[in-house]
Write a structure and sequence with these properties.
CATH architecture of the largest domain: 3-Layer(aba) Sandwich
Largest sheet: 8 strands, mixed
Number of helices: 29
Strand order of the largest sheet: 7-6-5-8-9-11-10-13
CATH class of the largest domain: Alpha Beta
Structural class: alpha/beta
Number of domains: 4
């Protein structure tokens, strides 16, 4: 086909009716990509853990692949094939990799678990595993936009269409985020979600191939052949009016690439934009999850709001890029808008939203969906302005870096790669360095400084003469000075995160209203979470994390924590080595540590700040467990530690985050309990705390049924508060256990066990019979109650979706009473003298 290269043809393809259909293809592509991202991250975190380092490896590998793909397409893929055909084949390959990751990961994951572990070697193996599974498909994903870019010309109209493609891709990502978080994974599992994404890839592939058949295309390679270049080395498109420029076959058929004057500064600016965007998303997620609750639904909503703003901004920026005379100046205005947007988001997240007069308990049951709608509104109010300007920046950066003779594929690849590299830096530096060192207040000010720097790079030097060299005029310096003053004024308004928000999260406004919040004696921000310690007027201490009280010195909490710790050590015959999952306030670990039989105590805590805090404020209540010479604190994800260690234990006790906190469900799955059982020595036991408050019946049933499916001889003990259900302790055994009341009482009567006996007396247990009269239920009696329970497995993490729907419920006693309908005295579980068995049975039926 011979195509005229007159200037009249410049806009013909940009006005073709097929281009809006390509936007729809990118919507589908973005939707599938986000579903894959969520599924792959979930699968890989099950193997390499959810620690900050593991997440950094995951994120850098994922985004690094996108960067490689965006740069490599134009260099290694010939310009001869129809861009739509290349795009379609990329989508097909992504779908194939989606299936390969799903079924291949367990095999290769087994190799990692056999070799990986802590230290540099383990870190290298984590990176290798992620690279094996994430780099190929993410490279393909990163290449899709540069591939389709070869179908448009690097003119204002063509560049604007590239921006619309990018916006469509982002809109699809919003849909994929919500689809995965609220339906595919909530109702189904990772297998169903993966094949749903594969189906979307298939539709996009077929549609792309059909459009390639129906639409004309003549690459610059073909033009080069017509003009006497039989090798066809140049890269281009139908819209490229200039002759083929210079690239030989060794360069993959890429056309010439020459940035517009000032284009390098545009690349630096868009890299800084990516850094501030991903860094801010990390900060906003940390702050907004306090106000909304750190559930899996909250994370989906925050991400959707962020992506929606970027998509809307990209559409607006694409329209602006068609007519803007100075794209670099316009990009500078967008970055200044980012500065203002960051200040607004900081105000919303730390001052406005936490003080909104909201009662979260109203969003329960059938009304929970309205709570999600309100959460979305709050996230949009906070994140939309800055996200809009980040989205508008991408098409304007394309326009600012474009020159008429560029290969559009290489243009998009360079700009996209710069933006992605900056995003990698922001996503890694924010949690690993900035928040942990400086806190969210200073981190947001640093991000505002980076956005201001991009404004200065775009506004101060002037490239509008024919030389292509910067001029440093008075006008540019004055613009830069004004922008700096503006940014400094806004940065000074950023406030530190309120201690009450860290402590009480979504209930902050209600606590302020009733005055029941106590004195904040510590507020800190770590790599993974923010925490606080408060002292009530009664003198009780509360340990807060994830925006709620996680432990305290109040009687009901001390009773539970002491039950959990002491049952872990007094039931096994010889508990020399014990592992504690989650440090919390350290009371459970402290109860374990004072048992004379315990020689080695390993506390596995994912947040490095926690042990330092509780060793300072809770030593009186946790027997100074962190300083105990028999204690070793390991900073790691507990699941990863158990999977990779070769150690075994006589007892394991687990006191992790609430099951509704995103990621906590991995410590409640059937597969996790199977690993825990394998790490037990003969006669060993596992104990775990299960809350009945801020939960629902379905979630509690899932926790109990999953645990008992691995420990069929397991049992549940209740911790009542004022005669009502509050929380429970589940206990599982390596082998069937008969609890000898005589042996327990005899052990507690020894002089060396006096501290253990006193610890139990402090919380109201004066004998073994009184302690074990808290027995509630075991599997034979529980089977009827658990008939409709959903097992929490690695492939579905069902618990975090069930528990996330009950986070605002306070039905602890109703849940316990539903369980207690099946409560009967367990024949054969206890042994001892007739007097002690009689006392146990009397206390069991009398309620203690």
């Amino acid at each position: 086909m011979t195509v005229s290269r007159s200037q009249d043809f410049e806009g013909s393809l940009a006005s073709t009716p097929y281009l809006p259909w390509i936007v729809l293809l990118f919507v589908g592509s973005g939707c599938a990509a986000l579903v894959y991202e969520i599924v792959w991250f979930q699968l890989l975190q099950l193997i390499i853990g959810s620690s900050a380092i593991s997440l950094a490896v995951l994120l850098s590998t994922f985004m690094g692949g996108m960067c490689i793909g965006s740069l490599g397409l134009a260099r290694f893929v010939s310009a001869r094939p129809h861009p739509l055909r290349v795009y379609a084949l990329l989508e097909a390959a992504i779908g194939v990799w989606g299936v390969l990751v799903l079924f291949g990961l367990p095999w290769v994951g087994g190799l990692y678990l056999a070799i990986g572990g802590p230290g540099i070697a383990g870190l290298l193996f984590r990176g290798l595993l992620c690279a094996l599974f994430l780099l190929p498909p993410t490279i393909l994903m990163g290449a899709t936009l540069p591939a389709i870019a070869r179908w448009v010309r690097a003119t204002p109209r063509g560049v604007s269409w590239l921006g619309f493609f990018y916006g469509g891709n982002t809109a699809g990502a919003v849909a994929g985020c919500l689809l995965a978080g609220f339906y595919l994974l909530r109702v189904h599992d990772v297998v169903f979600a993966t094949f749903a994404a594969v189906g979307i890839n298939a539709v996009v592939t077929v549609a792309g191939l059909l459009l390639a058949r129906w639409t004309p295309h003549e690459s610059m390679a073909a033009e080069g052949a017509v003009e006497g270049n039989p090798e066809g080395g140049g890269g281009g498109t139908m819209e490229t009016a200039a002759p083929a420029g210079g690239a030989g076959p060794g360069e993959g058929g890429a056309g010439r690439f020459e940035l517009a004057p000032g284009g390098r500064l545009v690349l630096v600016a868009i890299a800084l934009s990516g850094m501030t965007a991903l860094g801010s998303e990390v900060v906003w997620t940390r702050l907004l999850s306090l106000s909304l609750g750190a559930t899996v639904y909250t994370f989906s909503i925050i991400l959707a709001a962020f992506l929606l703003g970027i998509g809307l901004g990209s559409a607006a920026g694409s329209a602006w890029a068609r007519s803007v005379k100075d794209a670099r100046r316009a990009l500078g205005w967008c970055q200044l808008g980012v500065v203002a947007g960051l200040a607004w988001a900081a105000y919303c997240a730390t001052e406005a939203i936490p003080h909104w007069p909201v009662d979260p308990t109203l969003a329960t049951g059938e009304y929970v969906r309205f709570g999600f709608q309100f959460d979305l509104v709050r996230c949009l109010v906070c994140a939309l302005p800055a996200a809009f300007f980040w989205g508008a920046s991408f098409p304007l950066a394309l326009a600012g870096a474009a020159s008429p003779e560029q290969d559009p594929g290489r243009l998009v690849g360079r700009v996209y790669a710069a933006n992605t590299l900056g995003a990698i830096v922001g996503a890694l530096a924010a949690p690993l360095l900035l928040i942990a060192w400086l806190g969210t207040q200073r981190t947001q000010q640093v991000l505002m400084a980076m956005a201001t720097l991009s404004v200065l790079l775009l506004w101060v030097p002037d490239f509008r003469d024919d030389t292509g060299k910067p001029r440093w005029g008075r006008a540019g310096v004055l613009r830069g000075a004004a922008a700096t003053v503006f940014a400094l004024i806004l940065a000074s308004t950023i406030q530190p995160v309120p201690g009450l928000l860290v402590a009480y999260g979504r209930y902050m406004a209600m606590r302020l209203n009733n005055g029941n919040y106590g004195e904040m004696v510590f507020v800190g921000e770590g790599m993974h979470s923010s925490m606080a310690v408060s002292r009530l007027s009664t003198g009780y201490l509360n340990y807060h994390n994830a925006g709620k009280v996680q432990a305290s010195s109040e009687p009901q909490d001390m009773r539970l924590q002491r039950m959990l710790g002491h049952m872990t050590t007094i039931i096994p015959e010889n508990p020399r080595s014990v592992m504690v999952i989650g440090c919390g306030a350290g009371v459970t670990a402290g109860a374990v540590s004072i048992d004379p039989a315990v020689e080695e105590l390993t506390i596995v805590e994912i947040e490095p700040l926690v042990p330092r805090v509780v060793s300072t404020y809770f030593s009186e209540h946790n027997f100074a467990v962190v300083q105990n010479p028999k204690t070793t604190v390991v900073t790691d994800d507990a699941r990863h530690f158990l999977l990779t260690t070769d150690r075994t234990f006589d007892a394991i006790t687990s006191d992790p985050f609430d099951p509704w906190v995103k990621g906590a469900a991995t410590l409640y799955t059937q597969e996790f309990w199977e690993v825990a059982r394998e790490r037990l020595n003969p006669g060993g036991v596992v104990t775990v705390f299960v809350q009945l408050y801020e939960s629902n019946l379905a979630a509690v049933k899932s926790e109990v049924a999953t645990f008992l499916s691995v420990f069929p001889e397991g049992m549940v003990f209740a911790n009542l508060h004022q005669g009502q259900g509050y929380d429970v302790v589940m206990l599982g055994q390596k082998e069937r256990t008969v609890i000898d009341l005589d042996r327990v009482d005899e052990r507690l009567s020894r002089p060396e066990y006096q501290e253990v006996a006193n610890s139990l007396i402090d919380v109201g247990f004066y004998s073994a019979a009184q302690l074990f009269s808290t027995f509630a239920i075991r599997k034979p009696e529980a089977d009827a109650w658990l008939a409709d329970a959903q097992i929490n497995r690695d492939r579905n993490l069902r618990l975090q979706y069930l528990a996330g729907l009950g986070v605002n419920l306070y039905e602890a006693d109703a849940i316990y009473q539903d369980m207690a309908r099946y409560r009967t005295f367990p024949p054969g579980l206890f042994t001892g003298s007739p007097d002690r068995l009689y006392e146990l049975e009397e206390r069991f039926y009398s309620g203690g």
